[in-house]
């Protein structure tokens, strides 16, 4: 079920442009219903305004929540009800892994028609949620659509969350899941040379970190990393040459308040302990300067798998995502970077509501088929 015309997908596929960011070529996807520069996609804007209205109606500043209550509020606010766009039967399997020391749920999806193919490509996906929340269910439809479009097996990892399980729990959970899949590729009917990892936001952080760890340990081989508006720099960690500057965003005067105060809040350098999410994940301040927490600070990016990096125009994380793409490209990594005009953070959660989420599924699937 789609809430938009399929012609908008065609526009996203065919009417792209190229811009350069510090020497990195970025493929810019148009906003199908908004041609003016500096404006939020109208569908995205309608969701933001609706959320603002709900917050105004339900706010009570006199009752400040406790930290436990705040965690519940944040977790409950994450995600967005989206749609299943599959046109073929998708098999869903579930198992639990314990090799990391935690009980980790592992979902997998694949088209029934392809189960006889024992050499399928695979994508291991890590959901977003600021390391403290999010859900495999929010990204389930996104994963299932990629499985259909790529005729592949897509895994969806239910890793441990902070603050109950801080770093390195989540990373270990995700890395062990990837190693388990790699070691058991034949049983899963996949080609061990065609295993990709991916994730959105904090999940993109995990995907980048898993690729670094895979290269460093040499016990797995990954074909591709799919980083969707990734958080590759936590707190004030940064690489030489990287700067966060609001002037790098094209902001219309009419929507400046919404864009500045609501869309660009992520990614601004700060002390990790000052941010509830990253401060819950990283309990030792010095850890934010390690590459498995902030991949942008890695000493070398050579030998990493090819990359797809997708960002939203009005997302404070876009700058670090594109800069990370430059670091990868400069190190000889085959890197494709997309920027979705008019979009804001977490747009893949709105699959079926906005065509950009479906378009990204198409791009990922095509890249998987070319491995």
TrEMBL record:
What molecular functions are annotated in GO for this chain? hydrolase activity
Q: Does the keyword Transferase apply?
A: no
Q: Where is the Alpha/beta hydrolase fold-3 domain?
A: 123-348
- What InterPro entries would the database entry show? AB_hydrolase_3 (IPR013094), AB_hydrolase_fold (IPR029058), GDXG_lipolytic_enzyme (IPR050300), Lipase_GDXG_HIS_AS (IPR002168)
Which keywords are on file for this protein? Hydrolase
Which PROSITE patterns does this one have?
Answer: LIPASE_GDXG_HIS
Tell me its family: Belongs to the 'GDXG' lipolytic enzyme family.
The protein's matches in PANTHER family, at most eight in alphabetical order, are given as: AB HYDROLASE SUPERFAMILY PROTEIN C4A8.06C (PTHR48081), ALPHA_BETA HYDROLASE FOLD-3 DOMAIN-CONTAINING PROTEIN-RELATED (PTHR48081:SF8)
Q: What is this protein called?
A: Alpha/beta hydrolase fold-3 domain-containing protein
State the organism named in the record: Clostridium manihotivorum
